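One thing: could you explain this record?
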Amino acid sequence: MSITAAMPTAKERPRRTRTKRVSALSAIKLSQLLPSHIDLRDPLKAVLVCEDCETWVPITGMQSKVQKLVPHHTGKAHVAAALHCRSSNRRVEFDMTIPEWRHALTDAGTEASSRQATAVLPKAFSPQTDRTLRGRSVRGAVGRRAEWAAALYRVRQADQRRAAVPQGAQPAEGPEVPLDHMVPRQAAEQPEAGPLTCERCGAAESSLTSAVAAGWCRITRRSHCGRCAERFPAWTRIPF
């Protein structure tokens, strides 16, 4: 929408104002703004970027008790429409000194310079990759489809050979596979010495085979269940 002569435009922002009005919004703290959004090089003409309209606004009352933003419009003077910014006459809290602001501005500039992107050079193709790409361009789409069809045929042939069971792989006669819990050979060869009792908690197992299956160990030549054996270092545990 174009601005005509009948429409008021934004005015120049004064450096000093005599109004006693103070905005009801909370005060702007300099420590919460970016150092680059503050200009305190000339303390009597200090300016900052308004949080609402994001434009540079002078600070009035630098020699008085209350510092605040001057009444201003949201746009550029004599160009944009005269829209009053709600942060006009908003208090400014100087919770940092001018040397602290200069130090923060220097640190921000150093950090920004370290984040600058470096030139990334494209990685050269290896000879094998170059030959592969050139071969694809020469063969074309039809040649590549033929190669895939041949590879698919070889894959199917390999799957069929892998799925085929050779004759005699499964014995016709022989003992069946045991379905009960298997124990180590050392436990099976030891004679049954009756029920075992844990030295620590008093838990009992009916046989040595059950104790081995439950993770029992010998610690200092004494029987301990699996739960109690975990309390001791691993090098002290001797399985049955």
